[in-house]
Amino acid sequence: MKITLLALASCLIAAPVMAEDSPPVAPVVSPDGSLYKAFGGHDGLVRITDDLFVNIEADPRISSFFEQQKIPHIKDMLVEQFCEITGGGCVYSGKDMKTAHKDLGITQDSFFALVEDLQKAMDKNGVPFAAQNQLLAALAPQSRDMVGPPAG
Ligand code: HEM
């Protein structure tokens, strides 16, 4: 866990000096589908996303962000996005990350909290550590499109 968060923190620090515009969603990191397989394919991603939301709802650091939100839709979009990134051949059809998280007031700490909840969900579902890191490394640069000034 510590190593994963360290890797993620390095990506976040490196992010501002990389290309100015990040792609609207993370790129495909495993075109041959091996990463998708490591996540258990579609059913695995659905289980991980369900567990992620169990963790989020029990997490006082970020649960309030998701009150009054259409959770089934967000879950569907996450599965689709993770499927695309891991090489499962899906095409993400949701909003780009900047638009989806605009004006929510997500802090860096909230972002890390969600990543921890995602790690717990991946652990529970037996996703190998290296595979977890590949997904998190792909998501890390997107944080700058999600983190923003306090809402309101
Ligand atoms: C790994 C990082 C994250 C990913 C990959 C991600 C992905 C997504 C996706 C795919 C959607 C649905 C977009 C659509 O409706 O088309 C969404 C919506 C949303 N996300 Fe995230 N998200 C991340 C981090 C966060 C964090 C850290 C928070 C808050 C703590 C958050 C709060 C929300 C909320 C509240 C919505 C619903 C917004 C709305 O419909 O108005 N997300 N996210």
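^ protoporphyrin IX containing FE complex. Confidence is low (pLDDT under 50) at residues 13-20. Residues 2-13+31-146 form a domain with the Globin-like fold (CATH 1.10.490.10).
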